[in-house]
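User: Just a sanity check before I run the rest of the batch. Below are the structure tokens for the first item. I only need the designed sequence back.
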């Protein structure tokens, strides 16, 4: 049996961008207090909903930072053979739940205001909305570079993106209320913000669930991986191919290869590991090489990919 030991192939994706999370948290944490105070003073539901987004941002960014620290912490127990990288996935799932919770609250409050005519102070609403927009844009710029590499950072980025939309909504609602004198615009914008948050949260939730359920990563089909392994010289059969994602940017795979009589098992092992890393982006491949006499391929379903079957690697 052979395998690669580089668990840090992501190096680690979330850890590399921890400073971005810290800077974004500092910016948003300070402004959350400002927006909450002025939201209560102005009576604006859209401003209060945006403050709720800010609170969700603070919670999400804090959870992301904690998860990042856990993910890179050395295991002193000897029981976490893959480390604590999955902590990032739980933080991402938490971000999704927070976003959905905020959206439900906004929609419930907006529905409760239908038919009412609350007093809204437009001046503070516009000023704080504009300041919130500037803070959110700065936080998005900080997080954007890491969102493509880490689902943990992506969860924080999407949360801030939703809050940016909320700040735009606050400004639009303020202008409409000032122009028409109708508070219903404030309620309508708050509802639109809630829908936008849900639209951003659900795709991230699907990604997180796919990783926690150990689905094959997007673009990597186990059948094609097995086919490419079957094409290695000296390989007779391939079975027990499994591919999954441990954390953002870190794919793991296992495979059992049955060799032809007289084949060089060490050479087969080296070629298989190189193929999995180079062609399929599997950072931590574990390959077991079995001589034909030991494989037990007479068992039903034991060796589903024969040597003569060629499955193209191109997607």
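Assistant: Here's the designed sequence for the first item:
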């Amino acid at each position: 049996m052979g395998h690669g030991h580089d668990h840090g192939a992501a190096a680690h994706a979330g850890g590399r961008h921890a400073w971005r999370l810290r800077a974004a948290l500092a910016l948003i944490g300070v402004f959350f207090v400002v927006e909450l105070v002025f939201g209560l003073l102005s009576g604006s539901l859209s401003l209060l909903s945006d403050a709720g987004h800010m609170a969700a941002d603070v919670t999400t960014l804090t959870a992301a930072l904690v998860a990042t620290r856990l993910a890179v912490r050395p295991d002193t127990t000897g029981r976490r053979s893959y480390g604590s990288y999955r902590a990032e996935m739980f933080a991402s799932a938490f971000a999704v739940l927070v976003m959905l919770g905020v959206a439900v609250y906004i929609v419930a409050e907006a529905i409760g205001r239908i038919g009412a005519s609350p007093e809204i102070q437009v001046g503070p609403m516009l000023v704080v909305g504009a300041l919130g927009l500037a803070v959110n844009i700065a936080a998005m710029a900080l997080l954007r570079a890491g969102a493509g590499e880490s689902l943990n950072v992506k969860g924080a980025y999407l949360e801030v993106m939703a809050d940016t939309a909320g700040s735009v909504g606050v400004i639009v609602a303020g202008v409409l209320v000032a122009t028409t004198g109708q508070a219903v615009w404030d309620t309508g914008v708050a509802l639109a913000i809630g829908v936008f948050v849900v639209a951003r949260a659900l795709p991230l939730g699907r990604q997180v669930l796919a990783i926690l359920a150990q689905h094959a990563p997007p673009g990597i089909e186990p059948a094609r991986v097995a086919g490419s392994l079957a094409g290695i010289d000296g390989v007779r059969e391939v079975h027990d191919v499994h591919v999954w994602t441990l954390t953002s940017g870190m794919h793991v795979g296992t495979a059992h290869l049955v060799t032809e009589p007289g084949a060089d098992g060490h050479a087969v092992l080296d070629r298989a590991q190189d193929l999995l890393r180079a062609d399929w982006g599997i950072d931590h491949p574990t390959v077991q090489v079995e001589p034909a006499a030991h494989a037990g391929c007479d068992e039903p379903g034991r060796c589903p990919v024969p040597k003569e079957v060629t499955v193209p690697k191109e997607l």
